[in-house]
Amino acid sequence: MIDASAFLSSIDAVFGHELPDEGKKQQKELLSRIMQGAIEKTPVDTGELKASWTTDGETYIENTAPHAVAVEFGSSRKAPNGMLRATLAELGLD
Residue 44 sits in which domain range? Predict the structure, then answer.
C-alpha cells in the first residue's frame, strides 16, 4: 500500500496548514495516475488481482488480493518489475 498520510502531515507541519485547493487537486490527479498505471500493469490470470485495487482517492492505494505482494516483488513473468514500482519509476517517483 502507498500511504501519503505521513507525507501530507509533514507538509502540514512545514506550512502550518493543509495543502491549498490546487495542491489537493494535484495530489488527487497524481494518485489517480498511479492507480491507473498500476491497474494497467497488473497481470491477469483470474482477474482477482486486477479487481483488488482500491483507493480512498486522496491518500492511499492498495491491492487487497492475497498474492499482490508476491506479484509486486517478482513472482510474475508478466510483471517482473511489479505494478506499483514500475508505475512509480515510469512517473519518476521511484
Answer: 2-90
